[in-house]
Design brief:
By secondary structure, this protein is of the alpha+beta class. It has one domain: Gcn5-related N-acetyltransferase (GNAT) (Aminopeptidase), CATH 3.40.630. It has 3 helices and 5 strands, in the order βαβββαβα. The longest helix is centred in the middle third of the chain and has 16 residues.
């Protein structure tokens, strides 16, 4: 089941964020809304977004699926749901995101185009 997360899902969301951070994935909860994928009432994947009404833009952020549930179409389902949600509630807006090698191909299938090169970099101190 896929649904927009609310306050009642905060513990499940916090758990996913903690697991993601152990894989060097940073997920910010500040001002983001999240859509979750549930299997047997357990949150196993999320995608995030935020909207800026004055600029008529949406930012797609923070996608993560638990390792044991990857390669099952969960990210694709969440991405399609987030896109449909955005079309329904934010008509006329532009969507921006930063893709990585894992998600770029799927996002291109959904109609996204590359507008500038993006790089995710890391430096361990």
């Amino acid at each position: 089941m896929i649904k927009l997360l609310n306050f009642s899902h905060r513990k499940s969301l916090k758990r996913i964020i903690k697991i993601a951070s152990s894989e060097d994935m940073y997920i910010s909860r500040k001002k983001n809304k999240f859509i979750g994928f549930f299997i047997e009432h357990k949150l196993v994947g999320i995608v995030g977004f935020y909207a800026i009404k004055k600029q008529k833009m949406i930012g797609f952020v923070s996608a993560y699926v638990l390792p044991q549930h990857r390669l099952k179409g969960i990210y694709k389902s969440l991405s399609e749901y987030r896109l449909q949600h955005s079309k329904e509630f934010y008509p006329g807006y532009s969507i921006y995101l930063t893709a990585n090698n894992n998600s770029k191909h799927q996002l291109e299938k959904l109609g996204f185009i590359n507008v500038e090169p993006q790089y995710r970099m890391k430096l361990d101190l």
